[in-house]
Amino acid sequence: MPSPPINALAALSIREWSHLLLFGGIQAPAGVRMGEGDRPAKSRPVGPTRGLVPRDTVGWEAPSMRSSEVTQARDLERDQLGRRFETEALPHANALHAAALRLTPGAADAADLVQECFLRAFAGFGTFQSGTNIKAWLYRILMNTYISSYRKAVREPRTISADSNPEFSLYDAIADTGATPEAQLLDGLPDDEVREALDGLPEQFRIAVLLSDVEGFRYQEIADITGVSVGTVMSRLHRGRKALQHALWDYARKRGLVNEADPWKTPRRNAARS
Amino acid sequence: MENTETECRAVLTRLYVYLDGEAAEADCAEIGRHLDRCVQCARRFGFERELKELVHRKCGGVTQRTGISDLIRTRLREVTG
After folding, report:
1. Three-state SS for A60?
2. Is the pTM here over 0.90, yes or no?
3. CB-CB contact of A89 with A117 (8 Å)
4. Which of A96, A102, A186, A231 falls 20 to 30 Å from A267 in CA-CA distance?
Protein backbone atom coordinates (compact mmCIF):
# COMPACT_ATOMS: atom_id res chain seq x y z
CA MET A 1 0.00 0.00 0.00
CA PRO A 2 1.57 3.29 -1.03
CA SER A 3 2.21 5.74 1.75
CA PRO A 4 0.81 9.25 1.55
CA PRO A 5 3.08 11.54 -0.50
CA ILE A 6 5.48 13.53 1.60
CA ASN A 7 5.65 17.24 1.28
CA ALA A 8 6.32 18.00 -2.39
CA LEU A 9 8.93 20.60 -1.62
CA ALA A 10 10.83 18.10 0.50
CA ALA A 11 10.55 15.62 -2.37
CA LEU A 12 12.11 18.09 -4.74
CA SER A 13 14.94 18.79 -2.33
CA ILE A 14 15.74 15.11 -1.96
CA ARG A 15 15.77 14.66 -5.73
CA GLU A 16 18.17 17.57 -5.96
CA TRP A 17 20.40 16.10 -3.27
CA SER A 18 20.46 12.77 -5.08
CA HIS A 19 21.52 14.50 -8.24
CA LEU A 20 24.20 16.45 -6.48
CA LEU A 21 25.41 13.15 -5.13
CA LEU A 22 25.18 11.17 -8.36
CA PHE A 23 26.34 13.78 -10.82
CA GLY A 24 28.77 15.73 -8.71
CA GLY A 25 26.72 18.91 -8.62
CA ILE A 26 26.72 19.52 -12.37
CA GLN A 27 23.48 21.13 -13.53
CA ALA A 28 22.07 22.00 -16.93
CA PRO A 29 22.40 25.63 -18.07
CA ALA A 30 19.40 27.80 -17.37
CA GLY A 31 16.69 27.74 -20.02
CA VAL A 32 16.91 24.04 -20.86
CA ARG A 33 13.39 22.79 -20.49
CA MET A 34 12.24 19.44 -19.16
CA GLY A 35 10.04 17.15 -21.24
CA GLU A 36 6.74 17.14 -19.36
CA GLY A 37 5.53 13.84 -20.77
CA ASP A 38 8.60 11.85 -19.77
CA ARG A 39 8.23 12.21 -16.05
CA PRO A 40 6.11 9.50 -14.36
CA ALA A 41 2.90 11.03 -13.07
CA LYS A 42 3.57 10.18 -9.44
CA SER A 43 6.78 12.15 -9.22
CA ARG A 44 5.80 15.23 -11.18
CA PRO A 45 7.30 18.07 -9.18
CA VAL A 46 5.75 21.23 -7.92
CA GLY A 47 7.83 24.32 -8.52
CA PRO A 48 10.92 25.06 -10.62
CA THR A 49 12.43 22.11 -12.49
CA ARG A 50 15.97 23.44 -12.50
CA GLY A 51 16.25 22.55 -16.15
CA LEU A 52 17.15 18.87 -15.81
CA VAL A 53 16.78 16.93 -19.05
CA PRO A 54 15.39 13.39 -19.28
CA ARG A 55 17.43 10.55 -20.74
CA ASP A 56 15.95 7.81 -22.90
CA THR A 57 15.78 5.46 -19.90
CA VAL A 58 14.22 6.65 -16.67
CA GLY A 59 16.51 9.12 -14.99
CA TRP A 60 17.99 12.53 -15.48
CA GLU A 61 21.26 14.03 -16.57
CA ALA A 62 22.56 17.44 -17.52
CA PRO A 63 23.04 17.81 -21.31
CA SER A 64 26.74 18.65 -20.90
CA MET A 65 27.34 15.04 -19.80
CA ARG A 66 25.89 13.16 -22.78
CA SER A 67 29.12 11.37 -23.68
CA SER A 68 28.52 7.65 -23.24
CA GLU A 69 31.77 7.05 -21.34
CA VAL A 70 30.88 9.55 -18.68
CA THR A 71 27.34 8.17 -18.53
CA GLN A 72 28.62 4.63 -18.08
CA ALA A 73 31.04 5.66 -15.36
CA ARG A 74 28.25 7.46 -13.53
CA ASP A 75 25.95 4.47 -13.89
CA LEU A 76 28.59 2.15 -12.48
CA GLU A 77 29.27 4.48 -9.59
CA ARG A 78 25.58 4.76 -8.87
CA ASP A 79 25.06 1.00 -8.98
CA GLN A 80 27.96 0.41 -6.62
CA LEU A 81 26.69 3.07 -4.26
CA GLY A 82 23.22 1.56 -4.44
CA ARG A 83 24.53 -1.88 -3.65
CA ARG A 84 26.60 -0.60 -0.74
CA PHE A 85 23.59 1.27 0.58
CA GLU A 86 21.48 -1.87 0.30
CA THR A 87 24.04 -3.91 2.21
CA GLU A 88 25.03 -1.39 4.87
CA ALA A 89 22.09 0.93 5.46
CA LEU A 90 18.90 -0.89 4.54
CA PRO A 91 19.24 -3.64 7.19
CA HIS A 92 18.57 -0.94 9.79
CA ALA A 93 15.22 0.00 8.26
CA ASN A 94 13.03 -2.11 10.56
CA ALA A 95 14.71 -0.83 13.70
CA LEU A 96 14.43 2.76 12.50
CA HIS A 97 10.79 2.23 11.65
CA ALA A 98 10.12 1.03 15.21
CA ALA A 99 11.97 4.06 16.54
CA ALA A 100 9.98 6.37 14.26
CA LEU A 101 6.77 4.99 15.76
CA ARG A 102 7.97 6.16 19.17
CA LEU A 103 8.62 9.65 17.77
CA THR A 104 5.49 10.39 15.76
CA PRO A 105 2.00 9.42 16.86
CA GLY A 106 0.68 8.19 13.51
CA ALA A 107 1.69 5.03 11.67
CA ALA A 108 1.51 6.79 8.28
CA ASP A 109 3.68 9.63 9.55
CA ALA A 110 6.19 7.16 10.95
CA ALA A 111 6.44 5.30 7.62
CA ASP A 112 6.89 8.64 5.85
CA LEU A 113 9.52 9.73 8.34
CA VAL A 114 11.60 6.59 7.83
CA GLN A 115 11.38 6.85 4.05
CA GLU A 116 12.44 10.47 4.07
CA CYS A 117 15.24 9.58 6.47
CA PHE A 118 16.57 6.94 4.08
CA LEU A 119 16.27 9.21 1.07
CA ARG A 120 18.38 11.80 2.88
CA ALA A 121 20.78 9.08 3.98
CA PHE A 122 21.16 7.92 0.38
CA ALA A 123 21.72 11.48 -0.78
CA GLY A 124 24.55 11.84 1.71
CA PHE A 125 25.87 8.30 1.42
CA GLY A 126 28.67 9.18 -0.94
CA THR A 127 30.42 10.99 1.88
CA PHE A 128 29.76 8.32 4.48
CA GLN A 129 32.81 6.19 5.30
CA SER A 130 32.24 2.43 5.26
CA GLY A 131 33.02 0.80 8.56
CA THR A 132 32.19 3.81 10.70
CA ASN A 133 29.12 3.91 12.94
CA ILE A 134 26.33 3.75 10.37
CA LYS A 135 23.62 3.04 12.92
CA ALA A 136 24.33 6.23 14.85
CA TRP A 137 24.64 8.12 11.56
CA LEU A 138 21.20 6.92 10.43
CA TYR A 139 19.60 7.73 13.78
CA ARG A 140 21.05 11.21 13.66
CA ILE A 141 19.42 11.70 10.26
CA LEU A 142 16.17 10.29 11.66
CA MET A 143 16.24 12.78 14.55
CA ASN A 144 17.05 15.73 12.30
CA THR A 145 14.33 14.74 9.83
CA TYR A 146 11.86 14.33 12.66
CA ILE A 147 12.68 17.73 14.13
CA SER A 148 12.66 19.59 10.81
CA SER A 149 9.69 17.97 9.13
CA TYR A 150 7.50 15.93 11.42
CA ARG A 151 7.53 17.27 14.91
CA LYS A 152 4.33 19.17 15.67
CA ALA A 153 4.17 21.28 18.83
CA VAL A 154 5.96 19.42 21.62
CA ARG A 155 3.54 16.77 22.75
CA GLU A 156 2.15 16.80 26.26
CA PRO A 157 2.68 13.53 28.11
CA ARG A 158 -0.45 11.41 27.88
CA THR A 159 -0.15 10.00 31.35
CA ILE A 160 -0.56 12.42 34.23
CA SER A 161 1.86 10.52 36.41
CA ALA A 162 4.81 10.97 34.03
CA ASP A 163 7.61 12.83 35.76
CA SER A 164 5.48 13.46 38.85
CA ASN A 165 8.20 11.92 41.01
CA PRO A 166 11.72 11.94 39.60
CA GLU A 167 12.86 9.49 42.30
CA PHE A 168 10.11 6.93 41.89
CA SER A 169 11.43 3.39 42.21
CA LEU A 170 9.41 0.53 40.79
CA TYR A 171 11.54 -1.88 42.78
CA ASP A 172 10.59 -0.18 46.04
CA ALA A 173 6.95 0.23 45.04
CA ILE A 174 6.63 -3.51 44.47
CA ALA A 175 8.66 -4.38 47.57
CA ASP A 176 6.39 -2.20 49.66
CA THR A 177 3.37 -4.28 48.69
CA GLY A 178 5.07 -7.22 50.35
CA ALA A 179 5.92 -8.96 47.09
CA THR A 180 9.44 -9.85 45.93
CA PRO A 181 10.26 -7.45 43.12
CA GLU A 182 10.87 -9.35 39.91
CA ALA A 183 11.01 -7.66 36.54
CA GLN A 184 9.40 -10.74 34.96
CA LEU A 185 6.24 -9.55 36.71
CA LEU A 186 5.97 -6.96 33.95
CA ASP A 187 5.97 -9.66 31.29
CA GLY A 188 2.32 -9.80 32.26
CA LEU A 189 1.93 -6.47 30.48
CA PRO A 190 1.22 -6.74 26.74
CA ASP A 191 3.88 -5.25 24.48
CA ASP A 192 1.65 -2.44 23.28
CA GLU A 193 1.02 -1.28 26.85
CA VAL A 194 4.72 -1.04 27.54
CA ARG A 195 5.07 0.93 24.29
CA GLU A 196 2.18 3.13 25.37
CA ALA A 197 3.94 3.78 28.65
CA LEU A 198 7.05 4.85 26.73
CA ASP A 199 5.01 6.95 24.29
CA GLY A 200 3.43 8.80 27.21
CA LEU A 201 6.76 10.20 28.39
CA PRO A 202 7.80 13.77 27.73
CA GLU A 203 9.69 13.82 24.42
CA GLN A 204 13.23 14.36 25.66
CA PHE A 205 12.94 11.57 28.23
CA ARG A 206 11.29 9.28 25.71
CA ILE A 207 14.07 9.80 23.16
CA ALA A 208 16.78 9.17 25.78
CA VAL A 209 15.18 5.90 26.92
CA LEU A 210 14.51 4.91 23.31
CA LEU A 211 18.10 5.43 22.19
CA SER A 212 19.66 3.85 25.29
CA ASP A 213 17.40 1.01 26.38
CA VAL A 214 15.63 0.12 23.14
CA GLU A 215 18.38 0.82 20.62
CA GLY A 216 21.46 0.17 22.76
CA PHE A 217 23.42 3.33 22.02
CA ARG A 218 26.11 4.53 24.42
CA TYR A 219 25.91 7.90 26.15
CA GLN A 220 28.33 9.58 23.75
CA GLU A 221 26.44 8.23 20.73
CA ILE A 222 23.16 9.52 22.15
CA ALA A 223 24.84 12.87 22.75
CA ASP A 224 25.96 12.95 19.09
CA ILE A 225 22.56 11.89 17.78
CA THR A 226 20.59 14.42 19.82
CA GLY A 227 23.15 17.23 19.90
CA VAL A 228 23.39 17.60 23.69
CA SER A 229 26.10 16.90 26.28
CA VAL A 230 26.69 13.49 27.87
CA GLY A 231 25.64 14.99 31.20
CA THR A 232 22.31 16.02 29.74
CA VAL A 233 21.87 12.55 28.25
CA MET A 234 22.48 10.96 31.65
CA SER A 235 20.04 13.28 33.37
CA ARG A 236 17.30 12.72 30.79
CA LEU A 237 17.88 8.98 30.83
CA HIS A 238 17.70 8.80 34.62
CA ARG A 239 14.51 10.83 34.78
CA GLY A 240 13.07 9.06 31.75
CA ARG A 241 13.56 5.65 33.33
CA LYS A 242 11.95 6.84 36.55
CA ALA A 243 8.99 8.28 34.67
CA LEU A 244 8.65 5.06 32.67
CA GLN A 245 8.75 3.01 35.87
CA HIS A 246 5.99 5.15 37.33
CA ALA A 247 3.87 4.62 34.20
CA LEU A 248 4.53 0.86 34.27
CA TRP A 249 3.53 0.82 37.93
CA ASP A 250 0.16 2.34 37.01
CA TYR A 251 -0.37 -0.22 34.22
CA ALA A 252 0.66 -3.08 36.51
CA ARG A 253 -1.76 -1.97 39.19
CA LYS A 254 -4.62 -1.65 36.70
CA ARG A 255 -3.97 -5.19 35.48
CA GLY A 256 -3.75 -6.55 38.98
CA LEU A 257 -0.15 -7.66 38.56
CA VAL A 258 0.65 -5.98 41.88
CA ASN A 259 -1.44 -5.57 45.01
CA GLU A 260 -3.00 -2.24 45.72
CA ALA A 261 -0.76 -0.82 48.41
CA ASP A 262 0.11 2.76 49.05
CA PRO A 263 3.91 3.00 48.77
CA TRP A 264 3.91 6.27 50.66
CA LYS A 265 2.24 4.82 53.76
CA THR A 266 4.08 1.50 54.05
CA PRO A 267 7.32 1.94 56.03
CA ARG A 268 10.47 1.44 53.96
CA ARG A 269 12.53 -1.63 54.70
CA ASN A 270 15.90 -0.12 54.04
CA ALA A 271 17.02 3.45 53.78
CA ALA A 272 18.97 3.17 50.55
CA ARG A 273 17.05 4.05 47.39
CA SER A 274 17.98 3.88 43.73
CA MET B 1 33.80 -1.32 60.64
CA GLU B 2 32.35 -0.26 57.34
CA ASN B 3 29.16 1.72 57.14
CA THR B 4 27.24 -0.41 54.69
CA GLU B 5 24.29 1.95 54.48
CA THR B 6 26.53 4.73 53.23
CA GLU B 7 28.19 2.28 50.89
CA CYS B 8 24.82 1.15 49.54
CA ARG B 9 23.78 4.74 48.97
CA ALA B 10 27.03 5.49 47.14
CA VAL B 11 26.58 2.46 44.90
CA LEU B 12 22.95 3.20 44.15
CA THR B 13 23.67 6.71 42.90
CA ARG B 14 25.95 5.12 40.29
CA LEU B 15 23.80 2.10 39.57
CA TYR B 16 22.53 3.26 36.18
CA VAL B 17 25.95 4.30 34.96
CA TYR B 18 27.21 0.88 36.00
CA LEU B 19 24.26 -0.86 34.38
CA ASP B 20 24.86 1.01 31.13
CA GLY B 21 28.49 -0.08 31.04
CA GLU B 22 29.62 3.53 31.27
CA ALA B 23 31.30 3.44 34.67
CA ALA B 24 35.03 4.09 34.88
CA GLU B 25 37.12 1.00 35.50
CA ALA B 26 37.82 1.80 39.15
CA ASP B 27 34.16 2.52 39.87
CA CYS B 28 33.17 -0.65 38.05
CA ALA B 29 35.42 -2.77 40.24
CA GLU B 30 34.25 -1.07 43.43
CA ILE B 31 30.55 -1.40 42.57
CA GLY B 32 31.02 -4.99 41.46
CA ARG B 33 32.67 -5.85 44.77
CA HIS B 34 29.80 -4.28 46.71
CA LEU B 35 27.19 -6.15 44.67
CA ASP B 36 29.05 -9.40 45.37
CA ARG B 37 28.60 -9.03 49.10
CA CYS B 38 25.38 -6.97 49.44
CA VAL B 39 22.30 -9.07 48.70
CA GLN B 40 19.86 -6.15 48.82
CA CYS B 41 21.78 -4.05 46.31
CA ALA B 42 22.38 -7.09 44.12
CA ARG B 43 18.65 -7.80 43.98
CA ARG B 44 17.87 -4.18 43.13
CA PHE B 45 20.54 -4.18 40.43
CA GLY B 46 19.20 -7.43 38.99
CA PHE B 47 15.72 -5.94 38.83
CA GLU B 48 16.90 -2.81 37.01
CA ARG B 49 18.91 -4.86 34.56
CA GLU B 50 15.98 -7.14 33.76
CA LEU B 51 13.63 -4.18 33.45
CA LYS B 52 15.97 -2.54 30.94
CA GLU B 53 16.05 -5.79 28.97
CA LEU B 54 12.25 -6.01 29.10
CA VAL B 55 11.83 -2.50 27.69
CA HIS B 56 14.32 -3.38 24.95
CA ARG B 57 12.39 -6.53 24.02
CA LYS B 58 8.92 -5.04 24.08
CA CYS B 59 9.65 -1.73 22.35
CA GLY B 60 12.29 -2.74 19.81
CA GLY B 61 11.43 -3.47 16.22
CA VAL B 62 14.24 -5.49 14.73
CA THR B 63 12.25 -8.67 14.39
CA GLN B 64 9.07 -7.11 13.04
CA ARG B 65 8.50 -7.35 9.34
CA THR B 66 6.90 -4.07 8.42
CA GLY B 67 7.64 -4.01 4.70
CA ILE B 68 9.38 -0.70 5.18
CA SER B 69 12.51 -1.84 3.32
CA ASP B 70 10.49 -2.42 0.16
CA LEU B 71 8.82 0.97 0.47
CA ILE B 72 12.23 2.59 0.81
CA ARG B 73 13.60 0.78 -2.24
CA THR B 74 10.60 1.91 -4.27
CA ARG B 75 11.09 5.52 -3.21
CA LEU B 76 14.80 5.38 -4.01
CA ARG B 77 14.07 3.98 -7.47
CA GLU B 78 11.57 6.79 -8.12
CA VAL B 79 14.06 9.42 -7.18
CA THR B 80 17.17 8.07 -8.86
CA GLY B 81 15.76 6.07 -11.74
Report:
1. strand
2. no
3. no
4. A186
